[in-house]
Amino acid sequence: MLLPIYAYGQPVLKKIAAPVGPDYPDLQALIASMWDTMYHADGVGIAAPQVGYSIRLFVIDTEQLDRKDKELEPTDMPMKQVFINAQILGFSEEPFTYEEGCLSIPDIRGDVERPEGIRIRWQDENFQEHEADFTGINARVIQHEYDHIEGVLFTERLKPLKKRLIQRRLDAIKVGRIKTDYKMRFYTAR
Predict the structure, then answer these.
(1) Residue 48, CA distances (Å) to 118, 125, 137, 159 in order
(2) DSSP SS3 for 116
(3) First CA to last CA across the chain, in angstroms?
């Protein structure tokens, strides 16, 4: 089922998400809907807060990038993975700058510097625990989605000048003055 993607300005995008357990209602259906929503919006990752759920869950599929971006390193093996209750344990020291975008912030992109590699612990959709190192584009996408469950948007990691240059466009997104090929839910003050 396709879910509306919550746009910049929605309070759920700024909350630190809560841990989730195997007894969470309809979790497998939510995960399936997140995959459907991400693919429909032509994304490579989506976090539960982006579809209105403040829980520590995100999914990524970097095979989407592999087909589009010929600048990727051959060592960047594409991956498709569900991450539940993820915890980043460490970062490499090498910085890696890459242009990022976000389904919650359509039509805005910017260079974000992040560590080249990470070590992360998470549970999969069956609540089996994993711990692994990731580098390159996989580490990048994981960090971007991990930021969502920590209440951080990629625009907060942009250089100050870029932030000022995009502010009007962010304000337009916040009130729904944007067209997308996917359904969005915009902030409305009460």
Answers:
(1) 21, 13, 21, 26
(2) coil
(3) 28
Task: Using pLDDT thresholds of 50, 70 and 90, give the confidence band for residue 72.
Answer: low
Q: Does residue 185 lie in a domain region?
A: no
What global pTM score does this model have? 0.93
Query: Does 113 qualify as catalytic in the annotation?
Result: no
188 domain residue, yes or no: no
Check which CATH number belongs to the domain holding 110 and give it: 3.90.45.10
β-pairing, 117-123 vs 80-91, is: antiparallel
Rounded to an integer, what distance in angstroms lies between the CA atom of residue 159 and that of residue 153? 13
Domain enclosing residue 122, as ranges? 5-178
Q: Evaluate whether residue 187 is within a structural domain.
A: no
The answer to the question of residue 92 being in a domain is yes
Q: What is the pLDDT of residue 76?
A: 64
- State how many domains the chain has: 1
> What sign results for the dihedral spanned by CA atoms 98, 33, 48, 27?
negative
**pLDDT band at 67, cuts 50/70/90?**
low
Q: Residues 63, 145, 150, 156: which is the catalytic one? A: 145
Say which amino acid occupies 3: L
Q: What is the pLDDT of residues 8-18, one digit of tens each?
A: 999 999 999 99
